[in-house]
Design a protein that fits this description.
heterodimer; A: 6-stranded mixed sheet; 10 strands; globular; B: MetI-like fold; two-stranded antiparallel sheet; 18 helices
């Protein structure tokens, strides 16, 4: 992976999380999270399983509800107000571990559905946009197939294109490569790197440390629902401060 | 390595083997017989027993079928003809009864001069179903509408339909055929107005009653559109429903009589007690099917709702209706409902039965659809949410198409069950084809003692209709299969 040019980060705040707490019943999943993401920043979140990293990014588009604290996305605070939630969701794209394409629709219909029904874009224009983004993820020839006919890597690239069709300001990636075969991981990561180089604000939960080193401005390490350490990738990998981080890094980089 | 040569001799194939047919015992009929009929001693015994049973059934019933009599005026005459042809003691079917009484099996006591009305309604039913069953498929639409045209031409002529409605009906179907070629989507408008048209054709009376009743939905929609920007969607829908109900209760009667006074246009009124046979079964069955599906979907969604009241009401409704036998509900329809309704309201018995049959099927459908909803991975809901789709759009575009697709076999089973259950209306005094009409036929001194023939006739028609539904559901499943699993 080529060392991507670390794009300049603007001083505009994209996401502001202040003393946020979340519980599942009695279980305290996220504990006092404070985090600021600038526009154009690319953040990789890692940590052992059950550390709350997926839950954290799912709070940002309110797939999960938080019970305390404040989350402000692009100037809109997430509360129980459905209008705000829909507004944030249409501005924030999300890519899932299991792709979650709609199996009853063709690839093109998957891509145009939200622009047509949420953004009220005319069908023809939505299809042009969809074909443009399918071209970007390098599978325009699959437009009229169904998701079940594509390989995992292709499906994940379609899922990325589907989010991009909504012209989001922020992209969230929830372990986008962990359900893929090794030879398909690269094609998805290449797409993500390309996206990063275009200056998209990205939050990515992943264990692809090569990806983190190549494009991230910041790596956040979480454990037991807390942010344990965050730093620039070079410092984070070469010179981890906390014992917990050192242990984690030795486990995932050790083999 | 070189020491182990004796065990690992190198080998190179220099001629490739051509494929050879399998041995005789492994192919064709011999293999099939061996595998399916004579594989074990037990299977051999069962095969022999099966053949004996079939032989016994066929040999004992075949003469009955072969000695069928089609021309006779009474059961006694039938028996004489059978005895004359096949000798004393021979048995024979007496289809002459069907030949003489077929119309009661189809129409009940509907006046013969008006038979063209249910026939036309039946033909147009397929015109209304076509755009739903074969959305946008020009070829299937054309074939189905063409069949409707031919059916109406022949049957309306045979039924002696008056000239003007005959011509109008043919023009309507021709118009739909033309529309199917150009804008098949527009055909759905006919589907929307069909219920009112069908009601008017079957029950007759002033043409304005169904039109004014349909206008109630227009009132509902108008109120909803006007009020929703001011008070929000759900309250606006509530106000709309209240206004529409007021319209139906208080405004409908006066408006109909005024318009009827200005523009008198009516068909002969037919009372519900003259309905019978398959006319009754199909009216109840089709209406029940058409209305139970949307109600069932709403109940299934309601049962999954986060809103406590909606959820409690849905669960209560479903569990109550499912916990009570259909016959109890039918008795409720015929007797008890009268006590709860305001005095003086005369609620048609067929309508009451339709409402309860619909509720009954809807409760079952709700559970079937809930199963379909539960089969969807959570990721589908999350992906729809993450794209910013609101609840109703997510349900309509993402969730329901998939949930309904996996539930198709169970939904169609429920529909078939509903259609066959329409024969239970015999218990509240309606003339269903199986019990009601058969009893009437047997009450005639000429046909007293006839037993198998009416049941076979009615059974065959039920089978054809139910088998048709079942085949359509299989076609639909194949058509919608996109997941390539």
């Amino acid at each position: 992976m080529a060392e991507a040019a670390k794009m300049q980060v603007s001083d505009e705040v994209a996401i502001q999380i202040t003393s946020m707490n979340k519980w599942y019943g009695q279980f305290h999943v996220l504990r006092d999270i404070n985090m600021t993401v600038m526009k154009g920043e690319r953040i990789v979140i890692c940590g052992p399983s059950g550390s709350g990293k997926s839950t954290l990014i799912r709070c940002i588009n309110r797939l999960e509800e938080h019970q305390q604290g404040q989350i402000v996305v692009d100037g809109t605070e997430l509360t129980n107000d459905l209008k705000n939630i829909d507004k944030v969701r249409s501005e924030v794209g999300m890519v899932f571990q299991h792709f979650n394409l709609f199996p009853h629709l063709t690839i093109l219909e998957n891509l145009t559905l939200a622009p047509i029904w949420v953004r009220k874009v005319p069908k023809k224009e939505a299809e042009e946009t969809a074909m443009y983004f399918l071209g970007k993820v390098k599978i325009p020839e699959q437009a009229h197939k169904y998701p079940g006919q594509l390989s995992g890597g292709q499906q994940q690239r379609v899922a990325i294109a589907r989010s991009l069709c909504m012209k989001p300001r922020i992209m969230l990636f929830d372990e986008p490569t962990s359900a893929l075969d090794p030879e398909m991981i690269k094609e998805v990561l290449d797409t993500m790197i390309e996206l990063a180089q275009e200056g998209m604000t990205m939050l990515c939960v992943t264990h692809e440390m090569g990806f983190a080193q190549a494009v991230a401005n910041r790596v956040i390490f979480m454990d037991q629902g807390q942010i344990v350490e965050q730093n620039e990738p070079k410092e984070f990998f070469n010179n981890p401060k906390s014992e917990r981080t050192k242990l984690f890094l030795s486990q995932i980089l050790g083999h | 390595m070189s020491e182990t040569h004796a065990q690992t001799v190198t080998f190179v194939r220099d001629t490739m083997l051509p494929p050879v047919a399998p041995p005789v015992g492994e192919r064709g009929a011999v293999k099939w017989l061996r595998e399916n009929l004579f594989s074990t001693p037990l299977n051999i015994a069962l095969t022999v027993l099966g053949v004996v049973a079939i032989w016994w059934l066929v040999s004992s019933s075949l003469p009955w079928w072969l000695n069928s009599v089609w021309n006779a005026s009474s059961l006694g005459e039938c028996r004489q003809i059978v005895a004359a042809n096949a000798g004393e003691g021979a048995t024979g079917a007496c289809w002459a009864m069907i030949r003489e009484r077929w119309h009661q099996f189809l129409f009940g006591f509907y006046p013969p001069s008006q038979w063209w009305r249910p026939i036309l309604a039946f033909g147009l039913l397929f015109g209304a179903l076509a755009p739903v069953l074969f959305a946008g498929q020009k070829r299937s639409l054309t074939v189905l509408l063409g069949a409707v045209l031919v059916f109406l031409l022949i049957t309306l002529y045979l039924a002696g339909a008056p000239g003007v409605p005959f011509a109008l009906a043919i023009a309507l179907v021709l118009g739909m055929l033309a529309l199917a070629q150009m804008q098949p989507g527009r055909l759905l408008w006919f589907t929307l107005i069909y219920p009112a048209l069908c009601f008017w054709l079957l029950w007759g009376g002033s043409v304005w009653s169904p039109i004014v009743a349909m206008a109630g939905f227009g009132v509902l929609y108008a109120v909803f559109r006007l009020a929703s920007p001011m008070i929000g969607l759900a309250p606006a829908a509530g106000v709309g429903i209240v206004v529409a109900v007021l319209w139906w209760l208080y405004a409908e009667g006066p408006v109909v009589s005024v318009v009827q006074g200005v523009l008198p246009f009516a068909l002969q009124s037919i009372n519900s007690d003259q309905f019978g046979g398959f006319l009754l079964a199909i009216v109840i069955g089709v209406t029940g099917i058409a209305f139970s599906l949307p109600i069932g979907i709403l109940l299934a969604l309601g049962r999954q709702s986060d809103m406590l009241i909606v959820k409690t009401l849905s669960v209560g409704f479903i569990e109550f209706i499912r916990g009570v036998p259909l016959i109890t509900l039918l008795f409720t329809a015929s007797l008890l409902l009268q006590y709860f309704l305001p005095p003086g309201t005369n609620f048609d018995i067929i309508l009451r039965v339709i409402i309860l049959v619909t509720f009954f099927a809807a409760a079952y459908l709700a559970e079937v659809i809930r199963g379909g909803l539960a089969a969807l991975p959570r990721g589908q809901y999350e992906a729809a949410d993450a794209l910013g789709l609101d609840y109703w759009r997510a349900q309509r575009l993402i969730i329901l198409p998939q949930a309904l697709k996996v539930s198709i076999p169970a939904i169609v089973s429920t529909f078939i069950g509903l259609f066959k259950d329409t024969t239970l209306v015999a218990f509240v005094g309606l003339m269903d084809p199986l019990k009601g009409v058969t009893q009437i036929v047997r009450a005639d001194i000429n046909w007293k003692g006839i037993y198998w023939e009416p049941y076979i006739f009615v059974g065959v028609i039920f089978f054809v209709i139910c088998f048709g539904m079942s085949r359509y559901s299989m076609y639909l499943e194949r058509k919608l299969k996109t997941d390539h699993r």
